[in-house]
Specification:
Length: about 140
């Protein structure tokens, strides 16, 4: 199982829940102290002792941006077009706004920190947008 070093803003007990809500792993976390934890599989999530959910993704460096929550989404042409419109015009359906903002935040962090958060769906979306724009890779 792949692991990722993270820093959380609080001291807490962190529990990895599988897709059915069953605990798979648990550890104590100290505020702002790096800890190595398993990267969740698809549809798994970490939950702290206060009930807050954390989505942890593969990437480079110590993950400190633990407030990023990207809900699972299906990559459809409608979704690609909607996110493209969001990037160009800052317009989208109200139901998509939170998802698109989260995706944008991940893309922005990755531009700043290079491969900081490797989220498979976002990578596929990014490739689809680039393909749609007709940009050729080097």
């Amino acid at each position: 199982m792949k692991k990722r070093e993270v820093k959380f803003p609080i001291s807490t007990t962190l529990t990895l829940l599988d897709a059915y809500g069953n605990p798979r792993f648990s550890t104590e976390v100290l505020e702002k102290e790096p800890v190595l934890i398993p990267v969740p599989f698809k549809r798994e999530v970490y939950k702290d002792s206060e009930g807050k959910l954390y989505y942890i993704y593969e990437g480079k460096g110590i993950l400190e941006d633990t407030d990023i929550a990207i809900a699972y989404f299906t990559l459809t042409q409608e979704m690609i077009d909607g996110f493209d419109r969001f990037l160009i015009c800052n317009e989208c359906e109200d139901t998509d706004r939170e998802l698109y903002r989260g995706i944008y935040k991940v893309l922005d962090l990755n531009m700043q920190k290079q491969d900081y958060i490797i989220h498979p769906q976002i990578q596929a979306l990014q490739e689809a947008i680039i393909k749609k724009a007709g940009v050729k890779s080097a």
